[in-house]
């Protein structure tokens, strides 16, 4: 959606969120994690501490400018109709969900610097990858159920267990990609994700 399609209220909300994000990122990079408080961030952004929490639940989310996660319809459609095996498609879907949290504001390099500089933010990324996995689990169950229709011996619990295992593995691959290359968090390239997926596949399939 472009700016002209946004209402005045929506534009104002985006502007306030961006101001809080900028203040949090600048202060954390300058003063560090412990010395930077929510009150400091709010004051620099020109809002109250109460308003801060209307936009972000924590310093971590404000620093990275994170939005609530959701499953984008095109990503879900691509999962069911796209190429690649189930493992690869689950990894791509997990990443697509995680990227819904990151606004397309051209500040990917600054986010990467924050992640490199502040270890506290890495725990938040882990939480987001876990949450993304939980969001895609119903989609995995649907796909696994469709596959199991021709195998009468497959039980519903087996399908749920398989879906849980798959989404946890996909989230682990995504976190590994972030560790190797923090820019993968918001970069449009899929190179690092594909490399991480290939490495995990090689390790899993290697003979003992």
Topology:
Blueprint: H1 8-31, H2 38-45, H3 49-55, H4 59-64, H5 73-81, H6 86-99, H7 108-117, H8 120-148, H9 156-180, H10 191-205
Helix pairs in contact: 1-2, 5-6, 6-8, 6-9, 8-9, 9-10
Structure overview:
The protein is built from ten helices and no strands. The protein is an all-alpha fold and 208 residues long. The chain is elongated, with a radius of gyration of 19 Å. Helices cover 71% and strands 0% of the residues.
Provide a concise account of the structure shown.
With 208 residues, the chain is mainly α. It is 71% helix and 0% strand.
Mean pLDDT: 87
Q: Estimate the strand proportion.
A: under 5%
Distance between the termini: 51 Å
The structure class reads: mainly alpha
Strand-and-helix sequence, N→C? HHHHHHHHHH
Helix content: over 70%
Q: State the low-pLDDT regions, or none.
A: none
Biggest sheet character: none
Outline: elongated
Radius of gyration: 19 Å
Number of helices: 10
Number of strands: 0
